[in-house]
Design a protein that fits this description.
The protein is mainly beta. The chain has four domains: 1-38, no CATH class; 45-132, Immunoglobulins (Immunoglobulin-like), CATH 2.60.40; 140-229, Immunoglobulin-like, CATH 2.60.40; 235-495, no CATH class. The chain has five helices and 36 strands.
Length: 495
């Protein structure tokens, strides 16, 4: 009698029969036993080595196969069912390169099996699509996705490009030779790439011609498409000023916000400004309009005022237009008791108490012109406007609460003696005109500090020389709302 022991982990059969020679009796015998059959697993991935991308004119591509057991024979096939072999090699490590035999033009689904001691793994199925054939000469425009046409008020656009080779990576540019940084790229699916752009640099441009090339289709192609950006209706475009914190152009209401019940506002000439709201409620009215809308921030307000200050037509005899803000005991010859009766070319100037006309004294003109020719109404008068102090943080952000000048002062006084300026809680880019001698005598307005923190800017219909585009008042904000205070919204296309 003797005992046989077997290592089941090395058996390739489920039920095995073994012939045995018993030397002691010189007899032959057989023994049947059961063992656990080995399951040979297929490799897990295939990647191109040469050429580096598909499609290609190369009919003998070299591929790298990974997830192999050393010593296994690996067979490469050109079909997903592993019936048409095009190469094989024995693995010495966990990866293996195989060069395929000649492939005909067309699409091939590369698959593999692994062999050991005559036992094959299952077919892996398609692990890599390889297209052998000529590369298309150019790419073409497919369709607009967002917006649905070639114009809109968003700076992030989405569209499709067709004619791509297989799954090649397609990039889109705004330069005719496809130079510089692409505005967006994507891998094609079945020959079509869906491109989502980065935020277009609106800048001084409002039109963007689109060009494209791919990782395989390397010829730069004109898509013959032009995207035109425009601000929402009733808004004007403001050039950004990175020194003031507005690195991108934005859109602002041309007019002070008017009610658009129940929970929104609009920028239209007809009607009176919406007033008697807390600053937080004013912001909600803006954000309720839709995505990218918000209450104007102080950096954006300063961007508008500094820009308008550089436009000569806004001045006459050294004074900037102040608009609808007259008050006889504050430097004027008449007083207003209410907001302007209308907002149009027939009410461009404040000509007498609560009276307007199409012409008049420059100081009482209600519009300011920007460097790009856009016109904004009542930035200096009519009603004060709530301003969110910070551009980047959510919610209403307060300005400094450490200002010692809790009364009306000229800007030069703030610079020379106010505590919030000396300790840098308030800086020049937060409120100052380009020159210190630009004060209320020239229509620029004044400063009122204190510990309130919530900013309102511009001027009221009866503010007199306290009104101006640069006027800044810090209020508590939770209680100081009345018929003198309104607001305006911005639209940020880069968001």
């Amino acid at each position: 009698m003797f005992i046989l022991r077997f290592d089941n982990s090395k058996l390739l059969c489920k039920i095995c029969t073994l012939s045995i020679l018993a030397s002691s009796c010189n007899q032959m015998g057989t023994a049947t036993f059961e063992g656990a059959a080995i399951m040979v697993e297929p490799p897990v991935s295939i990647s191109l080595v040469s050429p580096v991308s598909s499609p290609s004119l190369d009919d003998t591509p070299t591929v790298r196969i990974s997830g192999i057991t050393p010593g296994h024979l690996v067979k490469l096939y050109k079909d997903a069912s592993c019936s048409q072999q095009i190469g094989e090699a024995t693995a010495t490590g966990s990866t293996l390169n195989i060069t395929a035999s000649s492939l005909a033009d067309g699409t091939h689904q590369l698959a593999v099996t692994s062999f050991v001691d005559g036992t094959s793994s299952p077919c892996s199925g398609s692990l890599l699509e390889y297209v052998k054939g000529a590369v298309p000469a150019t790419l073409s425009f497919g369709s607009w996705i967002s917006p649905a046409t070639n114009s809109g008020n968003v700076s992030i656009i989405q569209f499709s490009v067709t004619g791509a080779s297989g799954t090649e990576n397609v990039s889109v540019y705004t330069t005719a030779d496809c130079s510089g940084t692409s505005i967006g790229s994507a891998a094609a699916v079945a020959g079509t790439a869906t491109i989502t752009s980065s935020a277009l640099k609106i800048g001084t441009a409002t039109e963007f011609n689109l060009y494209t090339k791919g990782s395989v289709t390397t010829t730069c192609s004109n898509l013959n498409q032009k995207y035109t950006f425009s601000c929402p209706s009733g808004y004007i475009r403001v050039p950004g000023n990175s020194s003031l914190g507005t690195t991108e152009d934005f859109c602002v209401m041309m007019y002070e916000a008017k009610d658009d019940s129940p929970n929104k506002v609009k920028s239209v000439p007809a009607g009176n400004p919406l007033v008697n709201l807390l600053v937080a409620d004013s912001q909600s009215k803006c954000t309720n309009i839709g995505t990218r809308y918000d209450l104007i921030s102080n950096p954006e307000w300063m961007t508008i005022t500094r820009n308008s200050e550089a436009v000569s037509s806004n001045f006459q005899s050294g004074k900037i237009a102040r608009g609808w803000a007259a008050r006889s005991d504050y430097g004027d010859t008449w007083s207003n008791t209410a907001v302007a009766p209308s907002t149009d070319s027939n009410c461009l100037y404040n000509t007498a108490g609560d009276t307007c006309g199409s012409s008049g004294v420059h100081l009482y003109r209600r519009t300011l012109t920007l460097s790009n020719g856009e016109i904004i109404w009542d930035l200096s008068g009519n009603v004060y406007e709530w301003v969110d102090w910070n551009l980047t943080l959510d919610g209403i952000q307060a300005g400094p609460t450490t200002c010692s000048d809790a009364t009306w002062v000229q800007f030069a006084t703030v610079v020379s003696s106010d505590s919030c300026y000396s300790n840098n809680d308030l800086t020049g880019k937060d409120f100052l005109p380009s020159t210190l001698n630009a004060d209320s005598t020239k229509g620029f307005g004044r400063f009122f500090g204190g510990s309130g923190g919530i900013a309102k800017r511009g001027g009221a219909f009866d503010g007199g020389y306290y009104s101006g585009a640069y006027t800044l008042i810090f209020e508590p904000g939770t209680w100081d709302y009345d018929h003198h205070v309104g607001f305006r919204c911005v639209y940020r296309p880069y968001k």
